[in-house]
Amino acid sequence: MFGLVASILFVLIWSTGFIVARAVVPHGAPELVLAVRLVATTLLLAVAAALARQSWPRGKRLGLHLAAGAMLHGLYLTISWWAVGRGMPAGIMALLGATQPLMVAVASVLLLGDRLPGRGWAGLAIAIIGVTCVLLPAIERSGASAVPVVPVLAGLFAIIAMTGGTLIQRGQIAGDPILMSGAAQNLGGALVAIAATLIVGDWRWDNDPMLWIGLAWSVLGLSAAGLSLLVWLVRHQGPTAMSMLLLLVPPLAAIEAWALFGEQLGPVQLIGFALALGGVLLGRSQGRAKARDAAAELVEPA
């Protein structure tokens, strides 16, 4: 039951990332906003972990946490935001993000020895088609043929980095406490964001109330709650099942943009949402017994 609730909460929280980025970026440099967000999240989770008496990782385990955070939080966020800021349409970036579950599924089969049944591959394909339908109007408006090559390559690298960070969660750090894991991994992401801020050298920060509201939600909702749920779902349901949930994020973001900003939401997008939801449900229907067995195996300390 908690797994279902965690899945729903994760998708709802994660979908607000598009909305927050749209609201915050006009008021602050993206790299600087991300650096402040990740540092604040690191401090918040570190205090929570200390109060819960969760010990800080050392040696190789600390290195794995930092590497996972650098890829999942740092590289993915900073590079994708950089790509969008350098001419990559948000719709194209979201479509590239839809390939992440496919990358995770292939890597899990090849590297981790996981097995994805035929209905899993079918559900994944249906969901990706649905996401494409949802994003199609935005892609058409952006003029995809004129998208610069470098931002596209950067966007692909960001998705690969997120895939790598997701897969690391299944290794030796799979049994570590969530709060401590979140603090260490956000620290890894913060180091990347700080380095990106220093390299770019953009210190724009206008103190607009929307900037602070967006930053507060980014820390408490997206980073502290959303990323903690992501790590929990990877460890208890597997990286492929968790990644399939990401395919529901663009459709939900489109609905939120329609409700908040009056963006168009046509029949094609509604059909795409239905396809994405159906594909995710089909792909994640692995049977309760397998899910329990996988969860029991993952929570055992390495």
UniProtKB/TrEMBL annotation:
<dbReference type="Pfam" id="PF00892">
    <property type="entry name" value="EamA"/>
</dbReference>
<comment type="similarity">
    <text>Belongs to the EamA transporter family.</text>
</comment>
<feature type="transmembrane region" description="Helical">
    <location>
        <begin position="267"/>
        <end position="283"/>
    </location>
</feature>
<keyword id="KW-0812">Transmembrane</keyword>
<feature type="transmembrane region" description="Helical">
    <location>
        <begin position="64"/>
        <end position="84"/>
    </location>
</feature>
<feature type="transmembrane region" description="Helical">
    <location>
        <begin position="90"/>
        <end position="113"/>
    </location>
</feature>
<feature type="transmembrane region" description="Helical">
    <location>
        <begin position="145"/>
        <end position="167"/>
    </location>
</feature>
<keyword id="KW-0472">Membrane</keyword>
<feature type="domain" description="EamA">
    <location>
        <begin position="152"/>
        <end position="282"/>
    </location>
</feature>
<dbReference type="InterPro" id="IPR037185">
    <property type="entry name" value="EmrE-like"/>
</dbReference>
<keyword id="KW-1133">Transmembrane helix</keyword>
<feature type="transmembrane region" description="Helical">
    <location>
        <begin position="120"/>
        <end position="139"/>
    </location>
</feature>
<feature type="transmembrane region" description="Helical">
    <location>
        <begin position="32"/>
        <end position="52"/>
    </location>
</feature>
<protein>
    <submittedName>
        <fullName>DMT family transporter</fullName>
    </submittedName>
</protein>
<dbReference type="InterPro" id="IPR050638">
    <property type="entry name" value="AA-Vitamin_Transporters"/>
</dbReference>
<dbReference type="InterPro" id="IPR000620">
    <property type="entry name" value="EamA_dom"/>
</dbReference>
<feature type="domain" description="EamA">
    <location>
        <begin position="2"/>
        <end position="135"/>
    </location>
</feature>
<feature type="transmembrane region" description="Helical">
    <location>
        <begin position="212"/>
        <end position="234"/>
    </location>
</feature>
<feature type="transmembrane region" description="Helical">
    <location>
        <begin position="179"/>
        <end position="200"/>
    </location>
</feature>
<feature type="transmembrane region" description="Helical">
    <location>
        <begin position="241"/>
        <end position="261"/>
    </location>
</feature>
